[in-house]
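Repro:
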Amino acid sequence: MDRIRIVGGNTLAGTIPISGAKNAALPLMIASLLTSQTLTLENVPHLADVEQLIRILGNHGVDYSVNGKRDHQNGNASGYSRTINFTARDIVDTTAPYELVSKMRASFWVIGPVLARMGEAKVSLPGGCAIGTRPVDLFIDGLQALGADIDVDTGYVVAKAKNRLRGNRYVFPKVSVGATHVLMMAASLARGETVLENAAREPEVVNLAECLIAMGAKIHGAGTSTITIEGVDELSGAQVRVIPDRIEAGTYAMAVAMTGGDVLLEGAEPDLLEAALDVIRNTGAEITPINAGIRVKRNGAGISPVDVTTEPFPGFPTDLQAQFMGLMTMAKGKSRITETIFENRFMHVQELARLGAHITLSGQTAIVEGVSKLKGAPVMATDLRASVSLVIAGLAAEGETTVNRVYHLDRGFERLEEKLSGCGAVIERISG
């Protein structure tokens, strides 16, 4: 099993290209199930989750082809992105089996477009990383509001809508990005108007809405808490670009804030992560949006402690909480980090403690007492974002840090060690 070896102590300097967003690419790929024509997606990152979803879509009959491994369209060097064509000419199977869905939670989202297009879907209850229960009740309630008949039987959600889904008003009891994706896709082929209230406002939701509109859907209000969808009889193919990964950009910005240096995050869009950038500025880093992306600098001055609370967009994202905790382990003082989105998302605390961090937990709040130095040690990745927090800490720790279970990293960070070593970090992947 691969692991990553880091020798800490180097500052970072240079350019890191920001890849396409995993959290945008996955729902865009799933949207290909809504049409028999080809959906072309640009700037798709090469990640384990993307490859797994390609296999899941293939089970439904989706063909795909890759145009190229690099994309410099419009002069924007977007790292290692690819352009992929997805064609669901015929959906040959309306079942998404346990052995596929259990490996990645987002694959459950196929239930919306398969049900809307075929009138039936049978999808296994999802698996995914262990950062909380994240139940599917919002998906089921929302689809039932659109007229679906749904049973849960032997671990599968069985949904039927023989006479098409029907538009309706649905108020999310809590903000859910995944459920917003699914209901927006399903409503695009429903009869009549659907109004989604308390909808997620994340940039990835906007990217999906733009894709659906390019395919012929009638959607208004994406990016606000109320989204209106007027259903159409069918959707066509389209060509859409995956937005830059705001979580990757925020992660590398925190790595620079941790180690010091001067790095251009090429292709990053500051509008996608304003709250996180404000927090990083408050730690003492200099953040400058420029035409080419975002420039992050920090001199030798200490890291200032900052309190944060995770919130739905436009607040501080839960997907940057672990990375920020890694940064705060060396702050000059005490910080409080409160997690409001997912339970069980502090599993990285024990691993950071192995490097010398001083962190105590009180319910959903972590109190981090900054230390003057960390020391390298073997650590274990527990989920996608927790794993990269260990990398950030390892970059500043004295001596050698080995991060095990790096398959978590491969799910969401494209060639992480290559991007960091290109800026002066001593980091390498060790196979076997």
